[in-house]
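Convert to structure. Protein one:
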Amino acid sequence: MQIIHTIQKLQDVLKPHRQQKIALVPTMGNLHDGHLQLVKTAKQHADIVVVSIFVNPTQFGVGEDFDTYPRTLTQDCEKLQHIGTDFVFSPSVDEMYPNFHEHPPKTQVIAGDIAKILCAKSRPTHFDGVGLVVTKLFNIVRPDVAVFGKKDYQQLAIIRQINQDLNFGIDIIGMEIVRADDGLALSSRNSYLTETERKIAPMLQQTLQALKAKLINDAELNLQKLDDYRNQSIALLNSQGFKVDYLDIYTQNLDELNSGHLNSGHLNTNLVIVAAAWLGKKARLLDNIEINLNQFKPTKN
């Protein structure tokens, strides 16, 4: 495994492999089992796997945790070597954004309305930074395949949009969420949780599961009842020590639900429950559950 810190060096070492299938797994490091599963999936779909480790400043807002975000490159590389990664690309900020502090990048890559909802309401510049860094990585690596986790559901949708609209032609693979034994979605920011908060954290997933059950079991579900169930879930989480940023129900394309999605008193579409909630002073937890309500419709005799 080679660890590479410059764009030119990475492009040089990838040149002999251009006739092979190359996969990219973008990360910000502090790798956990969820990241490693992304890499294992990439290995199944490509001959060469590049993992980027870069804490991207353009996706952090003022007062966010860019300076304190865990940086564990040595440990990360040990894990990646163990599972057979080919190349690690770990550039500096100035390598990705020359003279960043004096001249922040002027170019933006914005994915339209999908980048204005959910996380964007509390982190208004976040997805501008995501769009820019992912576009740069796609141009630097020129992968055939890129693998992302579904925990960041909105981010994955935005990356798919960018890939389509900018004609990268990359096969974007979305991996299911990897969870701890108690159901908590694995995240680098879980390390911010205190011991007490870590015991409470699985309630986010449990609440989403309970909401899913309500949607499935209500044969006369409508938009008003759906909103009532959503508000009950938010109130429950807030009462247990969370500070809910959002908990919403969308189609899996992240279109807002409306009466056009109703059919014979039941939603006839694939849905996703998406949530973000603060727990404690530093940990902002993300989670989601996809639902196909059609599969739960009773069959007629």
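Protein two, convert as well:
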Amino acid sequence: MNTPTMIASLIFAVVLVVLIGLVIRLMMRGWRHRGQLQEALIGTLPSVPDTVGPPTVAPTRGLYLGCTLAPKWNDRVVVGDLGYRTKAVLTRYPEGIMVQRSGARPIWIPQDSVVAVRTERGIAGRTIPPLPGRPHDGVLAIRWALPSGTEMDTGFRADDRAEHSRWLVGGEDAAPSEANERPELEDDQ
């Protein structure tokens, strides 16, 4: 390789690395800015109660997909750790719904804040392929009102999507009595 070609290749590589770094920095800046704007809308999340009654819907293992500002299924909430996907266990109690997330703080949704529990094709930029005969059964979406008055959708996909139906009937399927303890999550790491 001759010297002018080598110099041109090195200059091109440096420019390319600088452009990639700039794009990554702008993306991170946009993520932080979005978080600052959403902090005012979201405020503080409800705290997890010290005690709860027996589960009305048994613990459901699956994947927490994130939260979105209602009614926009693609407007991901990035405040705190709400924007990260992780393994989770979803349990319904008479007092509310607990989302225990692996590697993140649990989310408590008080019963009086729940607006609707439904299934959707996708949430937070994540679309799940439909099951035959059930086109909207990819994601369990829980719409709830925050103390600030803002409505938010929390997305969850059960490991076995047939378990979504237990959540849609309002928790009529009672859990076994030994399920009163909150199940612990397994970490991948």
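Residues 171-189 have pLDDT under 50 and may be disordered. The CA atoms of residues 18 and 60 lie 46 Å apart.
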